[in-house]
Structures are given as structure tokens and as C-alpha cells.
Design brief:
Elements lengths: L1 H12 L22 H6 L12 E2 L7 E5 L5 E5 L5 E5 L8 E6 L5 E10 L5 E9 L5 E3 L8 E7 L2 E9 L2 E6 L2 E4 L8 E3 L4 H8 L5 E3 L5 E8 L5 E6 L12 E6 L9 E8 L4 E5 L9 E8 L6 E8 L4 E8 L5 E8 L12 E5 L35 E7 L6 E6 L5 E3 L7 E8 L4 E6 L8 E6 L5 E3 L8 E6 L5 E8 L4 E6 L8 E4 L2 H8 L5 E8 L5 E8 L9 E5 L19 H5 L8 E6 L8 H5 L7 H17 L4 E11 L1 H12 L7 E5 L10 H8 L6 H7 L5 H4 L5 E6 L8 H12 L7 E6 L11 H18 L22
Helix pairs in contact: 7-8
The structure holds 2-acetamido-2-deoxy-beta-D-glucopyranose (NAG) (8 copies).
The site of one 2-acetamido-2-deoxy-beta-D-glucopyranose (NAG) has 4 residues, from loops.
Length: about 800
């Protein structure tokens, strides 16, 4: 009944986009099958495209910058459609990686000569260009592709803050002031070290300009005593291997070892005076700063979030810029699990609450003037009147709240047995917060606004239709590009907030992809809530082969990620990738099943917390339980002797734990790509959040390590480990240790294969090695499918060797 209703609504909703979308993954309506080449070998033709616009602040809301066909930068207004050339193609540096437009739009800061570092960080040279004349100058004359970060002052087109050699500098119309001079291998100023970049901030900088541009708050990381992990690069991008590998000496704190210490500094830019902020929320060796945000319209106050080392307690501390006086404004004991670092703090200012039925006119007509400027001219509001937005899962579900700076009161903006997934825009003029949430289902994302003055919550899309939505809002919040991300073929539309139901125009239709898919016979994807005996539901995504016939038997591949707080099963359009390939090629025809085990995200705090202190156990049990569920649910279709599991990173770890469980009647083979093998080998800040320290939880660390070989020895099929030797994240050491455990433990070459990938990092892409990864996985699935089957295969018919699809 429910399903029928949904379909009707979908038809209405979808009337905007042509052809209409349906609330399920596309099935195709033709006969072609997906090939190795189009999904994996040379992918791209069947990918959904997304237009990402960079909104610019200007006199008119709705201006954004985009690339014209010839490469020039264009300003376009979404209302009028007027375009003006901002910078013609001939003036654009040829090898640029990124750019930032100055606040007055008269200049551009270009990053050129890019060299990747870690996940977010990179080295580059920077150019400052005058838009009117096209003239460029180097940010600094002597840079050698070694600048780590650079950004405009948000209020001045004369000033850039940048980091080089781990020191902070200010560029002011070409004159450069060095702010710190202690930067070096042991001290990082204003940029994160490896572990803060990867696990805490997820970005390449650790500096924050005050809204008025007069101050910079930044963190410094002292690596003294942090142990060094050495990574050898055997080829080091050369054709011929150097006699001695280049060695990267990486400050990388492993579980239980010394962490970097962190210090907070405030720079008064005009005075060039630096004030350290004394931090005593936790002792220096027990402190992680997870978030820093200005909570002001100018520069008088900032807030930071201080976690203890194992991130199960937090204190939010408000700092007075002038006096550096610090006040703990909120704190929380989260030792029933762990505390996530959502980095959601956004300053709002004074809030005048109105009851929801005393609704005033929409939008701007509030007589309050522009939201942003308030506070500044109005004198100094006290801390009990000034609010900031933050997320918290203290209720058991992640929700939005406003908190006063003094910490005495809060306003609940959202509540219920569901979670806010992302904050998309805070519009202080209209007094609205736009967010996506799982209100309809953990695997879905619908877009809403909530007014922080009236509390009124308004959906911007039809919440009854299963879908994943997101949006990008213009700088003044009047317009947004709404993205339908699935389950059907994605599209984007431009809307005005005045009339969310009527799109102004389609931005991306993906019509060509939609048409191309009609010619295919695609695997059939369905979603399930698996009722687990522990009383929770596990989200599952089942992909049946394109040529599925209920009377035929098919091998199965479980494809989990499974890490704490992560989500793999959602209703976004599923890319037509290798997973789709193995469900399509008649030579393989695998069923795939992806299940989000306990510990994963978006099902509330209790669901996440079950794995605290004990990674790997419930997750593995849940995967095995799900495999049994599938075999029971589809007894005729599932070849119960050929259920395997493949995962990457945490998924590779989980694959190993599943095999270690030793239920060889259920799980026949495992493929572990870049796995963690023992949490003691991984970094402190991720691992201890979930496991605490080995000192506090020695048994937990023993249990969570892959340590028992019997399960590997008793596999019907085989176990494959793939790992890059240059993996700076999950070190090759994990595969080395796992290989030693298994070979030493008597797992024979008939069962075990360990493949290294020279110089590759965690994504395994060095020198085209990604192709080998998928060819090897395909080969393995093919062998598992034929294991124990005597019949001659088509490829070896009459002794004629026909190449397999992944060999072409
Ligand atoms: C599928 O194709 C057939 C004819 O090839 C057509 O009649 C039918 O309307 C199509 N269905 C959809 C859902 O496009
Ligand atoms: C492989 O894919 C590419 C890109 O889609 C295409 O140009 C090429 O013809 C394909 N090759 C084969 C052998 O199908
Ligand atoms: C580009 O960067 C490299 C370091 O990655 C440096 O050696 C080289 O000098 C830079 N080139 C220019 C033109 O700055
Ligand atoms: C870094 O830490 C070491 C050891 O605690 C200390 O001796 C040194 O002074 C610190 N460096 C800075 C710049 O604070
Ligand atoms: C606000 O505070 C600043 C300094 O913090 C002070 O100079 C100013 O007079 C204050 N304004 C009002 C209206 O109290
Ligand atoms: C809001 O304040 C109340 C009363 O002090 C407190 O119990 C509650 O936990 C606070 N909410 C959050 C999300 O911190
Ligand atoms: C589990 O999922 C079913 C079907 O979606 C739903 O009716 C039920 O309320 C869910 N139970 C829990 C505990 O979430
Ligand atoms: C952990 O395992 C090691 C090695 O097997 C053993 O020596 C130690 O006693 C174990 N510790 C705990 C707390 O189980």
C-alpha cells in the first residue's frame, strides 16, 4: 500500500524533470550488459555528472562563477542569466590546481605547480593576479612549489595569509611578514600534522580569520617525541629504481604512543602581536582540539572544542580575544560511547524567539536590516544573548541546537528518532537553518529548513518519496541548486527560496546518461531493513545479476565498509562501477549484498556505540548473519558454497575478521584490500576514539586484532590481501604482519595470496596499478565461481585461449 502511494507522489514530484525519475535505482530497458571496459577499464561514459557552482558574494544575490567552454571564467547570475567574462581563457595559468577570488573580486589567488601530499594537503606555488590587467606576480619570489596553504583575508584584497616551512606568513601588497619562526619537522604552525589532517580536521589548514579580518586564530602542533614511521619509495616516480629508496619520515602517532601537543594562538594582524591562549581544559598530553570557530560578527570571542585523548569527554571553551580569558561554557561525558567531531559550530548572534503561529512575512522584510551586520553597530550584546548553532547527539540522535555563549541555555531546533546528516546553509537574514536529515529513513536524505526564531520546520522536497537530496545555496541564501542524488539518475535544478516547489530551470539533467541506460539490462538493486535478533534493523542493499533467473544459482559477494559512524547503504544512485560489472558479466554473475552492520552511522547513538571498545566483533558477526539471511531468503538463487566478502580499508579489516570467525560453512573466500590487521598499528586519534588506549583496554586490542589462523586455514576458497607499499595511512606493515601470521600459521599457497603494490598509497593508483587491483579481484571471483566445477569454460574451449574481459 505504502509503496503504491509513494509511486503516485513520485510521478507528481518528478513532473519537473524530464524524463521523470522513479523512487528506485534504474533497471534499464534494453538488452546490453555492462562490460568490464565501460565500468572499470575505461569508466566515465556511464557516470552521472554534477555541476558544482562557486557562488560569489556581490551586490546581487545569485551570482556564481563558472568555466566557459573555452576555459574562461564567467560570472553568471541565476536570476537574470546575464553572463560577464570575469577572466578570459588566455589569462588563466595553464597548470593551475585551484583558485580563490579576493573579497573585492579585483584579484585572483592561483595555486599552480601542484604536488599532492596527504589526503587534503598539497604543495604549490601561488600567483596573485590583477583581474583588470591580467598581470600576475608570485606570492613570494623564491617559492619552489613548497607553499603549504594560502588564503585571502575575508575582508581585504590586499592581504593573504600563507604557510611555508610550517611557518605562518602574512602577505600585504607584496610585503611579507613572518609571523612564526619555530616551524620545522617538529613544529607545525597553522597547518595540521598528518594525524590532525586525516582524523580531526579533514582539511589542509588550521587557521581561522576573524569575521572582520583583524585577527587570525591558529593552532600549532608540537611533534617532539611523536614517533616516526618511515615509508620507502622504491621507484619514487623514476623509470629505474634508485639504489637506495627515498624514505619519507612521517610523524605518525600510533595507538598508545605520544601524540602531538596542540597550542592555540591569536594573532592581532595590525599589531603583528601574537598571544598564546592558555588551554587547561585537559593536561597537554591528554588534549585534542577538534574545532575552532569565531563566535562574533567582529573579533571579540572565539570558541574551541577540547576533547580528552580518547574523545569520550569534551569541553567547549569560549575565549575573550582581548584578555585571552577562557571560560568552559559546555561540557559532556560521552563515555557511554564516543564523541564525534562534527565541526558544525556557526555563529548566529542574538535571537528573538517568536511563537510559531505569530508568523510574520517571509524572507527579508523583517525590518532588522541585513542579518550579518547586526551586533556590530548595535553595541555589545552579552554572552547570554548571543547564540551559536551546533550539533549534538546527547538525546541519542544527532540534532541541531542553538547555544548561548555563556552556556546557560539552549534552544532545540530539531528532535526525534532520526538524525541531522548535514547543515547546508545558515541564513541569518531569514533566520533559517537548511539541513538534510534521515527523518524518513536512515538511508535517505531529505532537505528541510528550520526557523530558529519560530521553530517552524519546512520540507523543501517531498519527504514521502525515498530519495537522497542535497543543495548548494547562493551567498545571500535567496537561491539554491537542488541536487537529486538518487536512487534514479541524478539531476540538478535551480530554485528560489521564495517558491521552492517551482524550479527556475534544470541545471543538470543527465539526459544522455538516462537515455544510454535505457539500452542496458542493469542489475536490480533493492533495499532492505534486516530485522536483527538484537532488536535493531540493519540497512542492506541487494544487487541481483542483470540476467537473474530465480531458478539459477549465483555466487555472492558481500561488499561492506562497516567502520564506526560510516554509511555504505543509502539510496543515492549507485555508480555503474566494478560492483555493477560483476553482477552483469555472464562469466561472473555475482549477487552483491552490502550491509551496514552495528556501529555504522545514521541509526542513532545507541546503534553506533555498541562497537565501542571492541571493534571487529559485532561487525563480523553481523556480516555473517546477513549472509545467512540471504541464503535463507533466496534458497534457490544463492549458491551457499560460494559466498565471499571483499572490502577496502576498514572493509578489508572486516573481511579479515569475518574469515577469522571461522564460519567456513557460510563464508567461502575473502578479498582484503589495504586492510588494517591490528589496531595497534593504526593512528591514535581515530583508533582511540573507538577503542580507548591499549593501557585502558588491553583485552579489547587483543580481541580486535586479526590473530587466529584457523578460519583462514579452513576456507573452502581462498584469501587475498592487496596493499600499497607507499600507504601513508594504513601502513603496508598491516599486510606484512597479516602475511606473516597466515604463512607462519600454516595457511598454504592454495588458500593465500598476498599482493603488494609498489609505492601506491591507500587508494592504490601509482603507475596504473588500480587496473591490476580490479583485474585481480575479477580473476579471483572467476576462479571462485569455477572452484570445484569440472566443466570446460568457453575461454579455454578447444585449447583456444580467448582473453577474459579484464585481460583485454
Ligand atoms: C521499455 O521499452 C519498451 C519498448 O522497447 C517500451 O514500450 C516501454 O515503454 C519502455 N519502458 C520504459 C519504462 O521506458
Ligand atoms: C572502452 O571504453 C572506451 C571509453 O568508453 C571506448 O572508447 C573504447 O572503445 C572501449 N573499448 C572496447 C574494447 O570496448
Ligand atoms: C614546482 O615544484 C617543484 C617541487 O614540487 C619544485 O622543485 C619546482 O621548482 C617548482 N617549479 C616552479 C617553476 O616553481
Ligand atoms: C615542543 O615540545 C618540546 C617537548 O615538550 C619542548 O621542549 C619544546 O619547547 C616545544 N616547542 C615549542 C615551540 O613549544
Ligand atoms: C563594545 O566593546 C568595545 C570594546 O570591547 C568598546 O570599545 C565599546 O565602547 C563597546 N560598545 C558598547 C555600546 O558598549
Ligand atoms: C540544553 O540544556 C538543558 C538544561 O541545562 C540540558 O539538560 C540539555 O542537555 C542541553 N542540551 C544540549 C544539547 O546540550
Ligand atoms: C525496522 O524496519 C521496519 C521496516 O522498515 C520498520 O517497520 C521497523 O519499525 C524498524 N524497526 C526499528 C527498530 O527500527
Ligand atoms: C594480549 O595478548 C598477548 C599476546 O597474545 C598476551 O601476552 C596478553 O596477556 C594479552 N593481554 C590481555 C589483557 O588479554
Amino acid at each position: 500500500m505504502r509503496r503504491f502511494v509513494s509511486l503516485c507522489l513520485a510521478a507528481v514530484l518528478a513532473s519537473a524533470i524530464e524524463p521523470p525519475r522513479f523512487p528506485h535505482q534504474p533497471t534499464g530497458n534494453g538488452t546490453k550488459l555492462l562490460t568490464y571496459n565501460i565500468t572499470t577499464g575505461n569508466p566515465g561514459e556511464l557516470s552521472a555528472s554534477t555541476t558544482s557552482v562557486t557562488w560569489v558574494k556581490s551586490d546581487q544575490d545569485g551570482d556564481f562563477i563558472t568555466n566557459d567552454d573555452d576555459g574562461s571564467l564567467i560570472f553568471e547570475n541565476v536570476v537574470t542569466g546575464d553572463t560577464t567574462t570575469f577572466l578570459s581563457a588566455d589569462k588563466i595559468p595553464t597548470d593551475y590546481y585551484a583558485y580563490q577570488i579576493s573579497p573585492d573580486r579585483a584579484r585572483i589567488l592561483w595555486a599552480v605547480n601542484y604536488t599532492k601530499q596527504y589526503r587534503h594537503s598539497y604543495f604549490a606555488d601561488y600567483l596573485v593576479q590583477d583581474v583588470a590587467t591580467g598581470e600576475t606576480e608570485s606570492l613570494i619570489a623564491d617559492s619552489k612549489g613548497d607553499i603549504q596553504y594560502a588564503t585571502w583575508n575575508p575582508t581585504s584584497s590586499s592581504e593573504i595569509a600563507f604557510v611555508r616551512g610550517n611557518d605562518l606568513f602574512i602577505w600585504d601588497e607584496g610585503s611579507i611578514s613572518q609571523i612564526t619562526d619555530n616551524g620545522g619537522p617538529d613544529l607545525f604552525n597553522a597547518v595540521p600534522d598528518w594525524v590532525y589532517e586525516e582524523e580531526i580536521f579533514g582539511t589542509d589548514s588550521a587557521l581561522w580569520y576573524s569575521p572582520d579580518g583583524q585577527y587570525i586564530a591558529f593552532l600549532s602542533f608540537n611533534e617532539t617525541g611523536v614517533e616516526t614511521f618511515t615509508i620507502p619509495y622504491f621507484m619514487d616516480n623514476q623509470k629505474v629504481a634508485p639504489s637506495y629508496p627515498r624514505e619519507l619520515k612521517l610523524r605518525y602517532p600510533k595507538v598508545g604512543t605520544k601524540n602531538p601537543t596542540v597550542a592555540l594562538n591569536i594573532l592581532d594582524i595590525k599589531e603583528k602581536s601574537l598571544s598564546p591562549v592558555p588551554v587547561d581544559a585537559w593536561p597537554a598530553d591528554d588534549l585534542i582540539i577538534g574545532e575552532v570557530a569565531w563566535v562574533t560578527d567582529d573579533h571579540d570571542k572565539l570558541i574551541y572544542r577540547a576533547f580528552n585523548r580518547v574523545q569520550d569527554h569534551e569541553k567547549l571553551v569560549v575565549v575573550d580575544t582581548e584578555t585571552q580569558e577562557s571560560t568552559i561554557t559546555r561540557q559532556r561525558d560521552g563515555s557511554d560511547g564516543w564523541l564525534d567531531n562534527n565541526q558544525a559550530i556557526t555563529y548566529i548572534g542574538p535571537v528573538e524567539r517568536k511563537s510559531s503561529h505569530r508568523k510574520r512575512g517571509k524572507g527579508k522584510g523583517k525590518g532588522k536590516g541585513k542579518g550579518k551586520g547586526k551586533g556590530k553597530g548595535k553595541g555589545n550584546d552579552s554572552d547570554e544573548d548571543r547564540y551559536y548553532l551546533d550539533m549534538s547527539d546527547v538525546s541519542g540522535w544527532n540534532h541541531l541546537y542553538l547555544f548561548t555563549l555563556d552556556g546557560r541555555s539552549n534552544i532545540t531546533l530539531t528532535s526525534g528518532d532520526w538524525e541531522v546528516a548535514s547543515i547546508l546553509k545558515v541564513d541569518t537574514a531569514r533566520e533559517l537553518v537548511y539541513y538534510t536529515s534521515t527523518e524518513h529513513h536512515p538511508t535517505e536524505r531529505h532537505l528541510y529548513s528550520v526557523s530558529y526564531t519560530t521553530g517552524v520546520k519546512t520540507p523543501l522536497v517531498d519527504p514521502s518519496v525515498p530519495a537522497v537530496w542535497s543543495a548548494s545555496f547562493s551567498s545571500e541564501g535567496g537561491y539554491y541548486i537542488l541536487r537529486y542524488a538518487g536512487p534514479d539518475v541524478p539531476y540538478q535544478e535551480l530554485h528560489t527560496v521564495e517558491d521552492p516547489d517551482k524550479p527556475i530551470r534544470t541545471v543538470t539533467s543527465n539526459a544522455r546518461l538516462h537515455a544510454a541506460l535505457q539500452e542496458y539490462r542493469l542489475p536490480k538493486i533493492t533495499y532492505h531493513d534486516l530485522a536483527h535478533p538484537s532488536g535493531v534493523n540493519l540497512s542492506a542493499m541487494l544487487r541481483l545479476p542483470a540476467t537473474f533467473e530465480p531458478t539459477k544459482k549465483y555466487p555472492v559477494l558481500l561488499t561492506p565498509y562497516g567502520g564506526p559512524g560510516a554509511q555504505e547503504v543509502n539510496k543515492a544512485f549507485q555508480p555503474l562501477d566494478w560492483n555493477a560489472y560483476i553482477a552483469s558479466d555472464p562469466a561472473l554473475e555475482y549477487i552483491t549484498l552490502t550491509v551496514d552492520n552495528r556501529g555504522t552511522g545514521y541509526r542513532g547513538r545507541a546503534f553506533r556505540s555498541t562497537v565501542a571498545g571492541n571493534l571487529g566483533e559485532l561487525e563480523a558477526q553481523d556480516q555473517i548473519w546477513a549472509a545467512k539471511w540471504l541464503a535463507a531468503e533466496y534458497p534457490d538463487a544463492v549458491d551457499a558454497e560460494r559466498i565471499g566478502i571483499w572490502g577496502w580499508s576498514y572493509g578489508g579489516y572486516l573481511t579479515s575478521k569475518v574469515v577469522e570467525e571461522g564460519d567456513s560453512d557460510t563464508i567461502a573466500f575473502g578479498l582484503a584490500t589495504a586492510p588494517v590487521a591490528d589496531w595497534r598499528l593504526y593512528d591514535s586519534m581515530y583508533t582511540e576514539r573507538y577503542m580507548k588506549t591499549p593501557e585502558l583496554n588491553p583485552e579489547g586490542y587483543n580481541r580486535s586484532a586479526v590473530a587466529k589462523v584457523d578460519g583462514f586455514r579452513s576456507l573452502r576458497g581462498s584469501f587475498l590481501v592487496q596493499h600499497g607499499t607507499g600507504d601513508d595511512n594504513v601502513h603496508f606493515q598491516n599486510a606484512a604482519a597479516l602475511g606473516d601470521l597466515l604463512m607462519g600459521g600454516g595457511v598454504g599457497p592454495d588458500r593465500l595470496e598476498v599482493t603488494f603494490f609498489t609505492d601506491s598509497d591507500h587508494s592504490i593508483r601509482y603507475n596504473g596499478q588500480n587496473a591490476f587491483v580490479y583485474k585481480q579481484l575479477s580473476e579471483r571471483l572467476w576462479e571462485e565461481k569455477r572452484r570445484g566445477v569440472a566443466e570446460e569454460h568457453q575461454w579455454s574451449k578447444k585449447g583456444l585461449m580467448v582473453p577474459k574481459p579484464w585481460e583485454v
